[in-house]
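Q&A log
Question type: sequence-to-structure
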Amino acid sequence: MSSCSDAAEHRTSPSAHKTHPRSPRGLMALHLLPQVTGAMRASAVPDLFIPSPTISAFDLGPLTIRFYALCILAGIVAGTWLTARRLRERGGTTAQTLDIVMWAVPFGIIGGRLYHVITDNQLYFGPGKDPWGALRIWEGGLGIWGAVALGLVGAAVGARRAGIPFTAFVDAAAPGLLFAQGVGRWGNWFNNELYGGPTNLPWKLQIHAMNPATGQALLTPEGTPEVLGYFQPTFLYESLWCLAAASLLIILDRKFSLGAGAVFALYIVFYTAGRFGFELMRSDYANTILGLRVNTWVAGLLLVTGLALFQILRARPRSRVLTTKPGPAHPPPAREEPT
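Response status: OK
Response body:
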């Protein structure tokens, strides 16, 4: 056995573990040093990504609340508030905004769902499919093109009933509509959908395999959420684009006297320009025409249409709500006093 003093000397003596650099062991250590250093540096750098939720719904008593629906509602509330504020600047009232929104929103939801079901009908109709799924709007699936198109029909009905020009309302609503779309896009984040191609960028989006019926991520045999991969966060790109476009639209409308309907024409231009690019980035399944997604074609055609409309409308007088003050009432005819 070694004495205590021997053990202490063995621990403190540097020569006890010194390896000669020219020995085979020393040469191997020198050879492996760069690899070990590189591995340590790599392990020190975290793998950055944007996490996605593993839950898209929760139960509240007998009701199932979908985060997708909550994001849509939050967008509607924010867009309505901004629209009411802008319509007041044009001579309208908050009550008129609410009256029109009560028509536009239901029409828009129906139109958005119809567009989605028509363009993605293979999801609901055919062998092994559930046609009733076309009615389960809370599971996701609203096409913005159908929502805006039919929403405009509802807005036209509401504007007529409220007694204000249709162009005044749509010009006031254009930035709010973009704002609502930017907020509503976060519903796609909760559903783990609307993503682009695989990427290694630091802001890559983690996507889970979700069960739409339960609103939960599927689990691996180890009990952890199943990760499908890491992709371009196109939902985030579109959300930020919509918020930036809404801000730019407000600035342009204040700085320039844009003609009636021209502000909404710029909304079409701004949104479709961004959507065209985002559709080219997306990798999730979609129906195509001549190799391009249907939404890519629609965005491109509407972009051209929006530019043409802006050129036609921009020189017209600015849209506003005419407020007429009631004139003095005619006095009733004097009655003859009985003599």
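Response note: The beta strands are 57-60, 63-66, 205-208, 210-211, 216-217, 227-231, 288-289, 292-293.
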